[in-house]
Amino acid sequence: MKKRKVKKIWILLLILLLIGGISLYFVNSKIFDKPEIIPDIKEPEIEEPKEDPRKEYKLSLFMAGDALYHTGCYKDGLQSDGTYNFDSQLVDIAPIVADYDLAYYNQETILGGTELGLSNYPNFNSPQEVGDAFIKAGFNLVSLANNHTMDRKEKAILNSVAYWRDKQGVMTAGSYDSFEDQARSHIGEKNGITYAFLAYTYGTNGIPVPKGKEYLVNLIDEVKIKQDVLAVRDKVDVVMVAMHWGVEYTHVPTTIQRNQAQFLADLGVDIIIGSHPHVIQPIEHVGDTIVIYSLGNFISGQDDLMKKIGLVASLDIHKVVENDETTITIDNVKGDLVYTYHRGYRNFRIIPFSKLTNAELGQDVATIKAKYEAIINKNDPSILVGTLG
């Protein structure tokens, strides 16, 4: 009996020891084990890309003179099927125009179309395919205000306006088919730069504009011009005005031209593009305003050398926006020469002087180039003269 009691006691002791050991293990674990400290790891901050506070924009402008389509010019475009195509006349110009955002020219002869019967001086009417060729070559600013706008009266103007209205990406100014059309927006935008384009002429060769239809052509009237310019001045970055003014066949701007240029400059016009003399006149600055007094003929059937040599010009418009302030500058003002080539009133081509040969000109190209380029910056040496494109 004793032995059994001893065994029971040892078994009980062992159980107690085992329980005590286990308890001590857990107690020691709680006392001595340090809690695991998880470091506070912050997610790396991703910096939002900062918007550049300075933004820069650029717009380039090319300008050519009068498209004066005499009989020889438009007959040159007649095809065997009775249609007209004038692409070949602009084949040397199109690659140059392609380098510019905006390209201007003056459509001197009304595009009344073949429906009215084509006609020559003194009352011109030209095929509408002339416009097709110029658009295809890249021109997208067209002045319709000149002394020949009324040549074939109201019907030709209505045809012309209808033709141009359908041309996407082309802005015209100076001739309309209603007061509503005349009051339409003359504002465009390209490359982040807004511009306004207006056009006026000194007269219409004595052909009266019908009373109550003054919208048919914009005449130079300082009251109207001021109203038109001020209506757009604060809405755009740049204001361009085409002026048909001056005296034919003189390289010297008249006092009236200079006075009108000053008037426009005082209104805040940035670029003045002149035509009518059919010959080149200088490019000058009037304050901050660029004034091209006359681009001369771009293409015509006139044969005198000075009427076959035209001025083409270009410039760059820069816009900088920084700290809510906008700065507009115009620079890189250039002038260069083109020549209307033909032989026997066939194969008309507008050739840049950079491509013109002595045989095509009939004289030494370098000598004539120097003579006419001297006119461009005669009164303003800051104007660059050289090859465009």
Task: Please provide a written account of the structure.
The chain has 389 residues and is an alpha/beta fold. The protein has one domain: Purple Acid Phosphatase, chain A, domain 2 (4-Layer Sandwich), CATH 3.60.21. Helices cover 28% and strands 26% of the residues. It contains eleven helices and 15 strands. Strands 1, 2, 3, 4, 11, 12, 13, 14 and 15 form a nine-stranded mixed beta sheet that branches. Strands 5-6-7-8-10-9 form a six-stranded mixed beta sheet. Strand 13 and strand 14 form a beta hairpin. The longest helix is centred in the first third of the chain and has 31 residues. It is globular, with a radius of gyration of 38 Å. The N terminus is likely disordered.
Secondary-structure map with pairings?
Elements (H helix, E strand, L loop, with lengths): L1 H31 L21 E14 L3 H5 L18 H4 L4 E5 L22 H8 L4 E3 L9 H13 L5 E3 L5 H4 L4 E4 L2 E9 L20 H12 L4 E7 L10 H13 L3 E5 L7 E4 L2 E4 L4 E3 L5 H4 E14 L2 E19 L2 E7 L5 H4 L3 H12 L7 E2 L4
Question: Care to give the gist of this entry?
Answer:
The protein has helices at 2-32, 71-75, 94-97, 129-136, 153-165, 179-182, 222-233, 255-267, 305-308, 358-361, 365-376, and strands at 54-67, 102-106, 141-143, 171-173, 187-190, 193-201, 238-244, 271-275, 283-286, 289-292, 297-299, 309-322, 325-343, 346-352, 384-385.
In terms of DSSP E residues, the strand content is 25-35%
The residue-averaged pLDDT reads 91
**N- to C-terminal distance:** 127 Å
For this structure, what is the CATH class?
Alpha Beta
| Run of helices and strands | HEHHEHEHEHEEHEHEEEEHEEEHHE
- In the CATH hierarchy, what is the superfamily? Metallo-dependent phosphatases
Quaternary structure annotation:
single chain
Give the CA-based shape. globular
By DSSP, the count of extended strands is 15
Radius of gyration, taken over Cα atoms and rounded to an integer in Å: 38 Å
